[in-house]
Amino acid sequence: MTRNDYSSRMTRNPSPELDLVPTASPGATVPSGVGLPRSPLLLTPAARKGMRHRMLLLRQAGVDRVQQLTGASSTDLKVWRHELQESALPDLLLQRGAGLAFARELPQGPLLYLLVRALRPRKIVETGVGPGYSTAWLLAALNDNGGGELVSIGPGPIAGRPSGVHDYSVGQFVHPSLRARWTLVLGNTEERVRQILNGGGPIDLFFYDNGPSADRARFELRTAWGSLSERAVLLAHHVDANPVWAEFCTAQGSAAQILDPGPPPMGAVSVRSGARF
């Protein structure tokens, strides 16, 4: 898909701006904004080009890890990487504010895209959603796969986030045309997480991005692991914030598994390669 194709599709299929309805179907639970969105910083053409280049600068070790986690072929990964280079999404994210405050995390979005293209998950759950940088990449991959849904729980804590991230509204980076497969749940409590994980069938991809609290990380990883499908992948962001990720992997008889070293580092483990926690 070319940049023009992607932009055209995004223009043709805007989703209505709706209030939050917790029991609605995916796409109907997404508010147009939570709080007052911050206006994106204006970038010079040279700066925009540099940010786009950084966003799409994938480490080969991360791509190899995606292949190990999912069993995807080298040919498919090459095709998807080419699609990334032609995608309009990086430019749309920059237009919506994904700029300097997110510079460290920019390359991890396309890596998430590759993982979802390869895994073809039917259901994704992410916790700690904020402006929605990772969310946008997950949804773009689901759209390009032609199936699947994403449930995001937020808003996420600001502790451990780069300066300025908290100035953006929840979901600000998610273009309306990406929201049809998205359910945004506001109420970031352990009980809400438990309800979502225990209802609606097995989860193929779980992404913990809910801040540096060791207790919260331990709760979510333990709870999510029991709700995953047999082919699922579990992700955790900022795994250097506490020892929980290392403990989690050790309990499965392996060293701490890393998808991308960052910073911030992102861990990943496949159910296929590990015992139940």
CATH level-4 homologous superfamily: Vaccinia Virus protein VP39
Oligomeric state of the chains in view: single chain
**CATH architecture assignment:** 3-Layer(aba) Sandwich
CATH topology (fold) name: Rossmann fold
Number of domains: 1
Strand proportion, as a percent range, falls in 5-15%
CATH class assignment: Alpha Beta
Radius of gyration: 17 Å
Low-confidence stretches: 4-25, 31-36
* Sheet of most strands: 7 strands, mixed
How many angstroms does the end-to-end distance come to? 40 Å
- Strand order in space, largest sheet: 3-2-1-4-5-7-6
Average residue-wise pLDDT: 84
At a glance:
The chain is α/β, with parallel strands linked by helices and 277 residues long.
What does this entry look like structurally?
Helix content is 38%, strand content 14%. It is α/β, with parallel strands linked by helices. A seven-stranded mixed beta sheet has the order 3-2-1-4-5-7-6, sandwiched between helices. Strand 4, helix 9 and strand 5 form a beta-alpha-beta unit. The chain is globular, with a radius of gyration of 17 Å.
Descriptive tags:
7 strands, 10 helices, alpha/beta, Rossmann fold, seven-stranded mixed beta sheet, 38% helix, 277 residues
Would you spell out the secondary-structure blueprint of this structure?
Layout: H1 3-12, H2 45-55, H3 60-70, H4 74-86, H5 89-95, H6 108-119, E1 123-127, H7 133-145, E2 149-154, E3 182-186, H8 190-197, E4 203-208, H9 214-225, E5 228-237, H10 244-251, E6 258-260, E7 266-270
Parallel strand pairs: 1-2, 1-4, 2-3, 4-5
Antiparallel strand pairs: 5-7, 6-7
Helix pairs in contact: 3-6, 4-6, 6-7, 8-9
